[in-house]
Design goal:
The structure is a homodimer. Chain A has about 240 residues and is mostly helical. Chain A has a single domain, classed as Methane Monooxygenase Hydroxylase, Chain G, domain 1, CATH 1.20.58.220. Chain A is about 80% helix and about 0% strand. Chain A contains 6 helices and no strands. In chain A, helix 1 runs parallel beside helix 3 and helix 4 packs parallel to helix 6. The radius of gyration of chain A is 20 Å and the shape is elongated. Chains A and B meet through helix 2, helix 3, helix 5 and helix 6 of A and helix 2, helix 3, helix 5 and helix 6 of B.
Chain lengths: ~240, ~240
Amino acid sequence: MTNEHIVRSFAQELQRLSNLITQMGGVAEAQVGSAIKAVARRDVALAAQVMQADTRLDEYEREIDTETIRLLALRQPMAQDLREIVSALKIASDLERIGDYAANVAKRSLALAQVPVVRPTAGIPRMGRLVEEILKDVLDAFIERDVEKAIGAWRRDEELDDLYTSLFREVLTYMMEDPRNITPCTHLLFMAKNLERIGDHATNIAETIHFLVVGGPLIMDRPKGDDSSFAVVQPDQTAP
Amino acid sequence: MTNEHIVRSFAQELQRLSNLITQMGGVAEAQVGSAIKAVARRDVALAAQVMQADTRLDEYEREIDTETIRLLALRQPMAQDLREIVSALKIASDLERIGDYAANVAKRSLALAQVPVVRPTAGIPRMGRLVEEILKDVLDAFIERDVEKAIGAWRRDEELDDLYTSLFREVLTYMMEDPRNITPCTHLLFMAKNLERIGDHATNIAETIHFLVVGGPLIMDRPKGDDSSFAVVQPDQTAP
């Protein structure tokens, strides 16, 4: 009887931990969505809201950290249960970072709202839509323990890297056209980089889901990282 | 007898885990140092070496991950031992990210080596020296389990943020002076950002050391993040 009671209650505790991750994922997703909206609409109030709400993700991470350590100490879990707990620790850390990047996008949108609109700003919501899709798929994959969906999202990160690299080049040419574009375009570059990093953390979560469900690391061939780090764009591309 | 043997061998396993972190920390430190050298000396071969060696840190992280999960499952540790293992997991993740940022600095130094030197490049070794010091202190603090040293390093991250913010503004003005500076200066901005992020991960490690030794989270008042996200620099600062 007592034994059965403990077993059931450990399952409940694991479910609660999993629910915490799901909730935290929902908050992170909302933060990313709002940050992108704040850029597109030059909505300073929304940006401020995103920056303030970032502490909620820090609190979630602390709560999940404490809970995982408590469960590890009290329950001494093995196999699948142990993977559940270690995965929670890892995913909470990725979601916290995603929140930081969303808050930084929001913060930079304030600087952007002080100056006239620059054309490449439109690239941010375009990248943003893809980031939101990848993040949504990864979080669904976590809830459904769906490895295929996780791998699908993980593969799409490459599209995001491509989008980032092309936006990077576009923004550079705008900077060269008019020095007044330099400050807003620099913020755009960092915003785009933040979105690309959110994608990287989403792929980390996909890898953790693979570990959680399958039990081993995801080792596959996927071109990683963006090419913008190599980019050299000349001011006048037609010059000899 | 048997019991004593198990106790001693668990202590040895924990020591081995701790040594793995120390070794990984040494590799990360060397990677950061070499990346900064590659920028300062426009050393393309060294940059390529840093980029290649990044896989070593990925391997360390995988080994530490596997080892922590094995120890959690087999040893079912509690209290201090449990904190040792969870800390190893967290620190390995931070060191892996530090390696990624070092590799990205190296990668960008290749783009920079293709164009004439731009003046603000000198800011990178300046930031780099501080990053190296902070990282060294944090790794020493881990080896010595020295919370005071960890907190000291954690506080110095603020200097790094200040250095980053002033370099950010300096680089923007160079971009405005001459459009040929825009591409190299953009890489400088991202390099500086990478160094600033390495500092953030070093402070994460300092916080983990606090958790490891003291048993609770480090909650202190320290201004966090850089101010460059708010920066608006005008092309002609003397204009009406």
